[in-house]
Amino acid sequence: EEPPRLLSWLGESWTPGSGKKAAHPNARFTAPAAQCPVIDPKWEDPQGVPISAILFGGRRASVVPLAYEAFSWRHGTFLGSVMSSEMTAAAAGKIGVLRRDPMAMLPFCGYNMGDYFAHWLSMPSRTDESKLPRIFYVNWFRKSADGKWLWPGYGENVRVLKWIFERLDAPADGQANAVKTPIGYVPSPGAIDTTGLNLPPGNMDELLKVDPADWRPEIDLIREHYAQFGDRLPSGLVEELEALRGRLG
Predict the structure, then answer these.
(1) Is 56 exposed, middle or buried (0-12, 13-18, 19+ CB in 10 A)?
(2) Helix or strand or coil: residue 165?
(3) Which of 52, 72, 153 is nearest to 120 (CA)?
(4) d(C-alpha 162, C-alpha 40), whole Å
(5) Is 60 exceeded by the pLDDT of residue 90?
Protein backbone atom coordinates (compact mmCIF):
# COMPACT_ATOMS: atom_id res chain seq x y z
CA GLU A 1 0.00 0.00 0.00
CA GLU A 2 1.17 3.50 -0.74
CA PRO A 3 2.13 5.43 2.39
CA PRO A 4 0.64 8.92 2.85
CA ARG A 5 4.09 10.49 2.56
CA LEU A 6 7.70 9.51 1.86
CA LEU A 7 10.96 10.69 0.35
CA SER A 8 11.20 9.83 -3.35
CA TRP A 9 14.29 8.36 -4.99
CA LEU A 10 15.27 11.96 -5.75
CA GLY A 11 15.12 12.88 -2.06
CA GLU A 12 11.97 14.95 -2.58
CA SER A 13 8.79 14.89 -0.52
CA TRP A 14 6.25 12.59 -2.17
CA THR A 15 2.55 11.86 -1.68
CA PRO A 16 0.19 9.65 -3.71
CA GLY A 17 -1.26 12.77 -5.30
CA SER A 18 2.02 14.45 -6.21
CA GLY A 19 1.93 13.23 -9.81
CA LYS A 20 5.53 12.01 -9.67
CA LYS A 21 7.15 8.59 -9.46
CA ALA A 22 8.26 7.64 -5.96
CA ALA A 23 10.81 5.12 -7.23
CA HIS A 24 13.23 4.92 -10.14
CA PRO A 25 11.73 2.92 -13.08
CA ASN A 26 14.39 0.24 -12.57
CA ALA A 27 13.79 -0.02 -8.82
CA ARG A 28 12.29 -3.46 -9.36
CA PHE A 29 15.81 -4.74 -9.80
CA THR A 30 16.68 -3.77 -6.23
CA ALA A 31 14.26 -6.24 -4.60
CA PRO A 32 16.23 -8.60 -2.33
CA ALA A 33 17.14 -11.75 -4.27
CA ALA A 34 16.73 -13.76 -1.06
CA GLN A 35 12.96 -13.35 -1.46
CA CYS A 36 12.98 -15.69 -4.47
CA PRO A 37 11.50 -18.98 -3.19
CA VAL A 38 13.61 -21.19 -5.49
CA ILE A 39 16.96 -19.43 -5.11
CA ASP A 40 19.92 -21.68 -4.40
CA PRO A 41 20.58 -21.72 -0.63
CA LYS A 42 24.27 -21.19 -1.42
CA TRP A 43 23.70 -18.18 -3.64
CA GLU A 44 25.92 -16.01 -1.43
CA ASP A 45 28.55 -18.71 -0.84
CA PRO A 46 31.96 -17.01 -1.25
CA GLN A 47 33.15 -20.13 -3.09
CA GLY A 48 30.48 -19.53 -5.70
CA VAL A 49 27.66 -21.66 -7.06
CA PRO A 50 28.29 -23.98 -10.02
CA ILE A 51 26.60 -22.79 -13.21
CA SER A 52 26.00 -25.38 -15.93
CA ALA A 53 24.52 -23.20 -18.64
CA ILE A 54 23.87 -19.60 -19.63
CA LEU A 55 20.85 -18.76 -21.79
CA PHE A 56 20.65 -15.70 -24.00
CA GLY A 57 17.59 -14.83 -26.05
CA GLY A 58 15.67 -12.31 -28.06
CA ARG A 59 12.28 -11.69 -29.62
CA ARG A 60 12.50 -12.57 -33.32
CA ALA A 61 9.54 -13.45 -35.54
CA SER A 62 11.79 -15.14 -38.09
CA VAL A 63 15.39 -16.23 -38.85
CA VAL A 64 16.37 -17.29 -35.28
CA PRO A 65 15.37 -20.86 -34.29
CA LEU A 66 13.65 -21.89 -31.07
CA ALA A 67 16.94 -22.91 -29.45
CA TYR A 68 20.54 -23.62 -30.30
CA GLU A 69 23.87 -24.16 -28.55
CA ALA A 70 27.10 -22.27 -29.15
CA PHE A 71 30.13 -24.11 -30.52
CA SER A 72 32.41 -22.74 -27.81
CA TRP A 73 32.71 -20.15 -25.04
CA ARG A 74 33.97 -17.55 -27.51
CA HIS A 75 31.15 -18.31 -29.92
CA GLY A 76 28.69 -18.09 -27.01
CA THR A 77 30.10 -14.69 -26.07
CA PHE A 78 29.52 -13.66 -29.69
CA LEU A 79 25.89 -14.79 -29.45
CA GLY A 80 25.38 -12.73 -26.29
CA SER A 81 27.05 -9.70 -27.85
CA VAL A 82 24.59 -9.60 -30.76
CA MET A 83 21.35 -10.33 -28.88
CA SER A 84 18.48 -8.69 -30.73
CA SER A 85 14.73 -8.20 -30.49
CA GLU A 86 12.21 -6.72 -32.86
CA MET A 87 10.49 -3.60 -31.59
CA THR A 88 6.90 -4.07 -30.42
CA ALA A 89 4.13 -1.56 -29.83
CA ALA A 90 5.17 -1.50 -26.18
CA ALA A 91 8.67 -0.23 -26.97
CA ALA A 92 9.85 3.10 -28.28
CA GLY A 93 10.83 2.95 -31.95
CA LYS A 94 9.45 1.54 -35.17
CA ILE A 95 7.66 -1.79 -34.89
CA GLY A 96 9.71 -4.62 -36.39
CA VAL A 97 13.03 -2.74 -36.30
CA LEU A 98 15.83 -4.68 -34.60
CA ARG A 99 17.15 -3.46 -31.27
CA ARG A 100 20.46 -4.86 -30.04
CA ASP A 101 20.91 -5.37 -26.30
CA PRO A 102 24.17 -7.26 -25.65
CA MET A 103 23.75 -9.80 -22.84
CA ALA A 104 20.64 -7.77 -21.83
CA MET A 105 23.15 -5.46 -20.12
CA LEU A 106 23.09 -2.29 -22.24
CA PRO A 107 21.15 -0.21 -19.67
CA PHE A 108 23.10 -1.61 -16.73
CA CYS A 109 26.74 -1.94 -17.76
CA GLY A 110 28.80 0.61 -15.86
CA TYR A 111 31.67 0.70 -18.34
CA ASN A 112 32.44 0.37 -22.06
CA MET A 113 30.64 -2.63 -23.57
CA GLY A 114 33.72 -3.46 -25.63
CA ASP A 115 35.65 -3.96 -22.39
CA TYR A 116 32.72 -5.97 -21.02
CA PHE A 117 32.97 -8.32 -24.01
CA ALA A 118 36.72 -8.61 -23.46
CA HIS A 119 36.06 -9.62 -19.85
CA TRP A 120 33.85 -12.48 -21.04
CA LEU A 121 36.43 -13.55 -23.62
CA SER A 122 39.14 -13.66 -20.95
CA MET A 123 37.44 -16.46 -19.01
CA PRO A 124 39.09 -19.42 -20.80
CA SER A 125 42.49 -17.98 -19.85
CA ARG A 126 41.43 -17.99 -16.20
CA THR A 127 40.26 -21.59 -15.98
CA ASP A 128 39.84 -24.81 -17.93
CA GLU A 129 37.26 -24.03 -20.63
CA SER A 130 35.60 -27.39 -20.00
CA LYS A 131 34.57 -26.03 -16.59
CA LEU A 132 32.83 -23.00 -18.06
CA PRO A 133 29.04 -23.00 -18.53
CA ARG A 134 27.72 -24.04 -21.95
CA ILE A 135 25.96 -21.19 -23.74
CA PHE A 136 22.58 -21.42 -25.46
CA TYR A 137 20.33 -19.02 -27.35
CA VAL A 138 16.52 -19.22 -27.23
CA ASN A 139 13.74 -17.53 -29.17
CA TRP A 140 10.17 -18.22 -28.04
CA PHE A 141 8.65 -15.76 -30.53
CA ARG A 142 9.05 -17.19 -34.02
CA LYS A 143 5.95 -16.85 -36.18
CA SER A 144 4.52 -18.59 -39.22
CA ALA A 145 4.07 -16.87 -42.58
CA ASP A 146 0.50 -15.95 -41.57
CA GLY A 147 1.70 -14.27 -38.35
CA LYS A 148 0.73 -16.97 -35.83
CA TRP A 149 2.98 -18.06 -32.98
CA LEU A 150 4.72 -21.34 -33.78
CA TRP A 151 5.56 -22.16 -30.14
CA PRO A 152 3.09 -21.97 -27.20
CA GLY A 153 5.68 -20.51 -24.81
CA TYR A 154 5.07 -19.94 -21.09
CA GLY A 155 5.24 -23.18 -19.11
CA GLU A 156 5.96 -25.19 -22.23
CA ASN A 157 9.40 -23.59 -22.40
CA VAL A 158 10.49 -26.19 -19.85
CA ARG A 159 10.55 -28.61 -22.79
CA VAL A 160 13.43 -26.63 -24.26
CA LEU A 161 15.14 -26.56 -20.86
CA LYS A 162 14.83 -30.36 -20.79
CA TRP A 163 16.68 -30.51 -24.13
CA ILE A 164 19.36 -28.21 -22.70
CA PHE A 165 19.80 -30.45 -19.65
CA GLU A 166 20.16 -33.44 -21.96
CA ARG A 167 22.77 -31.57 -24.00
CA LEU A 168 24.73 -30.87 -20.82
CA ASP A 169 25.03 -34.61 -20.29
CA ALA A 170 26.64 -34.95 -23.73
CA PRO A 171 30.12 -33.82 -24.89
CA ALA A 172 30.23 -30.13 -25.79
CA ASP A 173 31.43 -30.90 -29.31
CA GLY A 174 29.09 -33.85 -29.83
CA GLN A 175 25.79 -34.02 -31.68
CA ALA A 176 23.67 -35.98 -29.22
CA ASN A 177 20.08 -34.75 -29.71
CA ALA A 178 21.42 -31.97 -31.95
CA VAL A 179 22.31 -31.12 -35.53
CA LYS A 180 25.34 -29.01 -36.39
CA THR A 181 24.36 -25.95 -38.43
CA PRO A 182 26.22 -22.78 -39.48
CA ILE A 183 24.94 -20.95 -36.37
CA GLY A 184 25.36 -23.66 -33.74
CA TYR A 185 23.91 -26.95 -32.52
CA VAL A 186 20.14 -27.01 -33.14
CA PRO A 187 17.83 -29.66 -31.62
CA SER A 188 17.56 -32.67 -33.92
CA PRO A 189 14.12 -33.83 -35.09
CA GLY A 190 12.28 -35.32 -32.13
CA ALA A 191 14.85 -34.09 -29.57
CA ILE A 192 12.34 -31.69 -28.00
CA ASP A 193 9.52 -33.56 -26.30
CA THR A 194 6.24 -32.32 -27.79
CA THR A 195 4.00 -34.96 -26.19
CA GLY A 196 0.53 -33.52 -25.60
CA LEU A 197 1.18 -30.21 -27.37
CA ASN A 198 -0.81 -31.02 -30.52
CA LEU A 199 1.28 -28.62 -32.59
CA PRO A 200 0.15 -28.10 -36.19
CA PRO A 201 2.13 -30.17 -38.71
CA GLY A 202 5.33 -28.45 -39.75
CA ASN A 203 5.57 -26.16 -36.73
CA MET A 204 8.64 -27.83 -35.26
CA ASP A 205 10.36 -27.92 -38.64
CA GLU A 206 9.84 -24.17 -38.99
CA LEU A 207 10.82 -23.48 -35.36
CA LEU A 208 14.15 -25.25 -35.81
CA LYS A 209 14.88 -24.14 -39.38
CA VAL A 210 18.22 -22.47 -40.09
CA ASP A 211 18.22 -20.97 -43.59
CA PRO A 212 21.58 -19.48 -44.65
CA ALA A 213 19.75 -17.17 -47.06
CA ASP A 214 17.87 -15.65 -44.11
CA TRP A 215 21.03 -15.36 -42.02
CA ARG A 216 23.34 -13.69 -44.57
CA PRO A 217 21.69 -10.25 -44.17
CA GLU A 218 22.38 -10.52 -40.43
CA ILE A 219 26.12 -10.20 -41.12
CA ASP A 220 25.85 -6.56 -42.23
CA LEU A 221 23.46 -5.77 -39.38
CA ILE A 222 25.94 -7.18 -36.87
CA ARG A 223 28.80 -5.24 -38.45
CA GLU A 224 26.76 -2.06 -38.06
CA HIS A 225 26.09 -2.94 -34.43
CA TYR A 226 29.78 -3.63 -33.77
CA ALA A 227 30.91 -0.40 -35.41
CA GLN A 228 29.70 1.63 -32.42
CA PHE A 229 32.36 0.03 -30.21
CA GLY A 230 35.23 1.20 -32.42
CA ASP A 231 38.68 -0.06 -31.45
CA ARG A 232 37.35 -1.28 -28.08
CA LEU A 233 35.66 -4.22 -29.82
CA PRO A 234 37.71 -7.39 -29.12
CA SER A 235 39.21 -9.00 -32.22
CA GLY A 236 37.83 -12.35 -31.10
CA LEU A 237 34.28 -11.21 -31.83
CA VAL A 238 35.27 -9.92 -35.28
CA GLU A 239 36.80 -13.32 -35.97
CA GLU A 240 33.59 -15.05 -34.82
CA LEU A 241 31.55 -12.86 -37.17
CA GLU A 242 33.82 -13.71 -40.10
CA ALA A 243 33.65 -17.39 -39.17
CA LEU A 244 29.86 -17.21 -39.25
CA ARG A 245 29.98 -15.51 -42.64
CA GLY A 246 32.20 -18.30 -43.94
CA ARG A 247 29.93 -21.04 -42.61
CA LEU A 248 26.88 -19.44 -44.22
CA GLY A 249 28.59 -19.60 -47.61
Answers:
(1) buried
(2) helix
(3) 72
(4) 19
(5) no
